[in-house]
Amino acid sequence: MPVSAADCIAALLAEYAPGSVLVIGDAVPMPETVAEVTRVAASEAPAKLEELGRFDFALVSGLLETLEAADAETVLGRLKNLHTSRFLLLADPARACLGHDALLALALAPFEHLADGRVAWRYDLDRYNPERRWNNPEDWANPENFDRFRW
Hints:
The chain is α/β, with parallel strands linked by helices. The protein has one domain (5-145): Rossmann fold (3-Layer(aba) Sandwich), CATH 3.40.50.150. It is 30% helix and 22% strand. It contains 6 helices and 6 strands; from the N terminus they run H-E-E-H-E-H-H-E-H-E-E-H. The protein has a 6-stranded mixed sheet, with helices on both faces. The longest helix is centred in the middle third of the chain and has 15 residues, at 69-83. It is elongated, with a radius of gyration of 18 Å.
């Protein structure tokens, strides 16, 4: 059952308990528990992000519906690489400049289908590359095994 955008945002804010939040795009209701909130309009995001520092969490809404695809990719990439380790993107799939595959390529994962038709996409660096049993030096990246095994 689809949830409201406010419930989706509240759930993530409760999970992460950020001290500082960057809000890009449409006005989004923020709980009073967040100490520091910085707001930037979606159309101004490509230029304004250069002036901003690092945040505990970012909330992006209306970006994909406002900017061209190249600018939207730049903003999302800049968020991931410089400004935060976690963010939530709210996007209307019918009006978004980036599709499902492009968002997956940016390491975002679908999080919730919202009651208003938008999709909430989540980026969390800690969940991006989960630890796998085979991804360790004992199994494949061990120089001591280079002469023993041929792949």
